[in-house]
């Protein structure tokens, strides 16, 4: 695999402590890998919709990434950009979450899916 650009994102976690998120960009696949072990920008589960959604913290992180322009898509609108990017969240949950084509998918940590970033998959 080619060298992919990486970024560290700092933010407040759910305990209002400063946390660090590791982000890797797969520009050829329009994919963003987010390793969040400190609960900084995890997607939230909406119990009414019975589905995951971008939390306020996830939107804040995404806005920073949108302005960094690592993943360029012919869309200027931030909301449309989020839907067009393939997001993979590696977090403290028992699953890896993927948001692609405006839909959420869950994978277990031992999954061998080709889209997973192996350097993050084994840090669980």
From TrEMBL:
Domain of life: Bacteria
Protein name per UniProt: Uncharacterized protein
Organism this protein belongs to: Caryophanon tenue
